[in-house]
Amino acid sequence: MSEPADTASASDDPARLCEEARALAENGEADRAALLFEEVLARGDTPHRARAALGLAVVLDDAGDVARAREADRAAIATGDPEYGPRAAYHLALTHERAGEHELAAPAWRAVVEFGNPAYLPPAHLALARSADDAGDFDAAREHWEAVVATGDAGYGPLAAHDLAQRLLERGEPARAQRMLAAGLRLIDRDGAPYAYARLAVALGISYLDQAIGAFAASLGDPADPADPEVGPLATELLARTLPLRGRGGEAGEVWRRGLSDPGIAGQVRARLRRDFGGEDEDADPADLWWEPVVEQSVTDGTLPALAGEAFGALDHMYALLAVRYADGPGERRPGETREVLGKAVRVPSDYPWGPLLHESFAERLRLAMGTAAPNWPET
């Protein structure tokens, strides 16, 4: 008995076959779906060829047959279909990206761009930007990053703005970085994507820091020339205190040292350097306190936390030595033990760079008070 005419016609309809294949794939019947997609492809250059090829590529990829999936993607791309062509190129690029084959993914991403379908341009341009960036081609990368931002895509645009801004900051172009970051921020719904907004906002703040660093450095001029006595001290402090925020503490130390060596501004620079010291007698001479030069140098070098750690470490060690003996009852101490423990505590600072200064200070105080020199215990 022959099949009804309308049934035979439906089974021959490529659009109907593609729909059946899609339903089968969604229900987990990948093999049957692949057969139907292949049947459509076997019919040659039909209007549904691109759709069937892409469907076959997805089914095969899900089944682990990546090589045949890529062939199907290329077949869909070759049709030039404005919808399924870029989707197939996108899928092909992802198979290469997933395998870490970024160089092979690049041609597929370029194919996506050539199709010009707005739905797939943002990820394609972003991938090409990162590929060019990895290759060291900044100009090409910048064009693709800018193209992503120009699409207005809220997902990929902020990522591109951040990546490009980072490179611009590295190249010493904070003003351009600011414009790109501002454009990226306009694409984000702050309430809907608070973390993405915060990421760009922080980068924008960093760009202003870099711009400020450039302005402060420019105001100081050539290091070989004397600084302006009016703005030099302020510019020195602002530059020296801003540089560490960008991880440039070594440069900050050089800025302080330059200011302290300039006779025209050295006094004001030292006052600014010491503005946080506090607690000292206005009539006292800091030079009379052995630790003042140590603290001042550590502020200049940005090593004050390390110095504080050393001081507290020495205090902790000395306290432990003395406290253990204090906790023991007098009857439990052997003769001479107290002096021995005190000697160990006195020697603790000797291992620190500032230890000799402490010993010299005590020796001088003892000489003035008793008329005798202190024992040379650091070397004992």
TrEMBL record:
Record-linked Pfam families: TPR_16, TPR_21
InterPro entries: SecYEG/CpoB_TPR (IPR018704), TPR-like_helical_dom_sf (IPR011990)
UniProt feature coiled coil, ranges: none
Chain ranges of the Ancillary SecYEG translocon subunit/Cell division coordinator CpoB TPR domain: 104-183
Protein name (record): Tetratricopeptide repeat protein
Organism: Actinomadura graeca
